[in-house]
Amino acid sequence: MLLSLLFLVYKKIILLNEETLILLSFITFVYLTSKNYGDSFSKYLENESNNIKNNLLRSLKKIYFGFLKFSEYKKNVNLSIYNFSILGNYYRKLMFLFINSLKTFNKINTVIVFKKRLDYLKKIEDHTTKLLALLIIKKLNKVITLKKFYGIHIKNRNFLCKNKITLLEYIKIINKSEYR
């Protein structure tokens, strides 16, 4: 190969300039390096490629397990969302029942309280009626005693006449009650 290169330079097929010399020295360097260090260099490259392969496999496994965990979390989140929606529906139903029960309780409680108040008012009305009746009876007794006093002791004609009229009315009432 070296002889063929010298022959090409000698025939001026290849010009010997700086670039050609740099290319020639690079090719020579690569050839000698691969000849002397080829096995160790290929072993080094093979080790590096195996390391890269192992790193890639580990990374892919981690990514795979990460995706598995992510899909599991996503399923759990979807399940949690579903469970929360069911829980929300139960809560709404419970609140609806509670509100309806509260309305019913308030109605019943209002009826009970209103009934108690009405009973209390009825008692007050009865007591007031009795009290008024007693007061009226007391006042009428005073009026009757005064009327008798003025009719008997003072002997005013007006009162005497009214006394006789009252006696006649009493007699009529007694007669009517006897015939019954």
Automatic annotation (TrEMBL):
Please give the superkingdom of this protein's source. Eukaryota
Query: Mind telling me which InterPro entries this protein's record contains?
Result: ATP_synth_Bsub_B/MI25 (IPR008688)
Record's subcellular location: Mitochondrion membrane
Can you supply a Gene Ontology BP term from the record? proton motive force-driven ATP synthesis
Is this entry keyworded Nucleotide-binding?
no
Pfam families from the entry? Mt_ATP-synt_B
Q: Which UniProt keywords apply?
A: CF(0), Hydrogen ion transport, Ion transport, Membrane, Mitochondrion, Transport
| Gene Ontology molecular functions | proton transmembrane transporter activity
Task: Choose one Gene Ontology CC annotation of this protein and give it.
Answer: mitochondrial membrane
- Please give the name of this protein: ATP synthase B chain
Gene name of this polypeptide: ymf39
